[in-house]
Amino acid sequence: MDNPKYARIQSYGSMTTSPSEDDMTVHSRLFPYQKKMVVEREVLYEEENPPFQPLLVTSRMFGEARSTCLLVPYIFFYVLFLMLGAVVFNLLEEPIDIQTRVEVIQAKEDFMTRHPNVLEGDLEALLEEVIKASNRGVSASKNVTSGPNWSFGQSLFFSSTVVTTIGYGHVTPLSKPGKLFCMVYAVLGIPLTLVLLSALVERLLLPATSLLRALNAALGHLYRPFTIRLVHLMIIVTTFVVFFILVPAAIFASLEPEWDFLDSLYYCFISLTTIGLGDYIPGDSPDQPYRPFYKVATTLYLITGLTFLMLTLTVFYDIPQLNLSTVFSSMKLDEDPEKMRLSGSAGPGYGLGGLVMRDHYDQRRSVVHIRPHLDDSPSPEDTTPVHARDIRLH
Fold first, then answer.
1. DSSP per position, 170-198
2. By the 8 A CB rule, do 322 and 316 touch?
3. What is the DSSP string of 269-284?
4. CA distances from 141 to 78, 107, 283 (A)
5. Concatenated DSSP letters for 34-71?
6. Which of 171, 286, 294, 354 has a CA positioned 20 to 30 A from the CA of residue 330?
7. E strands, the chain, where?
8. Which CA distances in Å does 53 have to 56, 71, 269, 280, 324?
């Protein structure tokens, strides 16, 4: 509800500046005639307390050598982070690995005990062949009825893992021509996939932009632009987690007989982040019904999920306060026209689509109080109430 003390200036003519910096001439529906005004500016809270901006803060602390001064400790931090991961994985996985090795050795000894006529060397040779075939995606188990690895459905699934850089590794080309074609196919397919994903993300930014505008319209008078951006990001992230992680995980858990919900959740995360460890592959269990259709549907899920993941990252990196990559940049974004063009900073919008007005804090809302200049005499047509002469400019 509009406060009668404030009205929005809708300019119909040009705004000119008088020799005094505090004076301006206003053409408006409120003042239909030219009238010189004295502007008294009142600073809002968000101007005195802007949200954290890492680029500005680090520039003030480290000056021109900011990127180098911060990159060196960041490298040390990254090395420590890798070492921490190694220690944690070692503590969690080594006991299970030792237990599994003991169980395998015990199984071999039990087999030799039950079949004393089998030579240990022959058994080792057989196991080596089985392991080699398993590493190439061929199972020697008796109850496997999954069919060949290079049926059309399996081949389509493999080609999608190549061009999306997921690369599970459970099935690989065995022939030399197949390996050569895989390299050429990846060189051509990966850029084509990136172009496709970028084009799809640009289309998805349209409804995302509409959502942000709706949030601005509903909450703009209550919260700062940065807060509204965070709310918008949380909505996008929640949509991604629910519809591309949790719901597919529940579906995979119901279709895969040996997967529980955690295994399915793990598979969805590892796949959509393109880590692709290959320890869980959908559709490879024995007697899997509708295997070709299942593989095609999984391929569509991976491409759709990667597209929405790119959308989420685009929305995230468009918030300057969250984009820490600018801290280590040797050149500010506004100093490189090409980066400004690619990121959309030169105009309104997100990086890929150029669709949303950016909330630069050098263009903040401010309150100005406008009163008639002392030299101006009131016009006979001026029927404006005194309280309406305090105007909020947006």
1. SS---SHHHHHHHHHHHHHHHHHHHHHHH
2. yes
3. HHHHTT----S--TT-
4. 43, 16, 16
5. -EEEEEEEE--HHHHSPPP-HHHHHHHHHGGGHHHHHH
6. 354
7. 23-26, 35-42, 366-372, 390-393
8. 6, 18, 30, 41, 9
